Amino acid sequence: VAALAAVLGGFDSHSRFRGRDRDRVVIAGCRALGALSAPLAARASSADHELLAQVADKLIAAAAANGPAVAESALDAMAAAVARAPLPPEAAMLESLLPVWRLRLVKAASERASDSRVGVRAAAAGAWADLRGAAAGPGLERALGGESVPHVAAAQLRALARVHAEPGPLLAVRSAGPL
């Protein structure tokens, strides 16, 4: 917890850096936030929600950054933060059972799924699926239907395969034939 608090505090000093140096520092901070917040998210203690809300604030701001590498890293960190905190089946469908910090991350990831930058859209697909589980399926399907960039479509298909009950037909539509 102390290390996570230190990384969160370090975000206040990022304004000292400019250009690529600032991007590198923010990327490192996002990666650290994702790794250090994962045990707290897995523990799911109500005492940890305030700290996780602060993590969400930093990652949401970074996901909206102008630098695509920063946004991609923030989305990857969102997924890393919940990697060890899978959704119970009932929470996957009932949004009201999710903690507020996780709902905010879900919203940020789903908004980035329509970003103009290819890498950001690809990272958003994985984060959205990891954060929301099966409930992300319909939104990911819509995004996949309008996607023309193979790299992004592949990321969306990977994300859908993780959360969709029957991913075979979706994969077959985008492949050369039946699977």
Short structural description:
The chain contains 10 helices and no strands.
Give the topology, please.
Elements lengths: L1 H9 L8 H25 L5 H15 L4 H14 L7 H5 L6 H13 L5 H15 L4 H9 L4 H14 L3 H8 L5
Helix pairs in contact: 1-2, 2-3, 2-4, 3-4, 3-6, 4-7, 6-7, 7-9, 8-9, 9-10
Order of helices and strands: HHHHHHHHHH
Average pLDDT taken over every residue? 90
Given the helix and strand composition, which structural class is it?
mainly alpha
The fraction of residues in strands falls at: under 5%
Shape: flat
Largest sheet, described in full?
none
| DSSP strand count | 0
The span between the termini is 46 Å
Helix content: over 70%
Treating each run of at least 4 consecutive H or I residues as one helix, how many helices? 10
Q: Spans with pLDDT under 50 lasting ≥5 residues?
A: none
- What is the rounded Rg? 16 Å
Characterization of this structure:
There is one protein chain. It is flat and about 50 Å long. The protein has 179 residues and is mainly α. The chain starts with a helix and ends in a 5-residue tail after the last helix. Helices cover 71% and strands 0% of the residues. It has 10 helices and no strands.
Structural features:
single chain; 179 residues; mainly alpha; flat
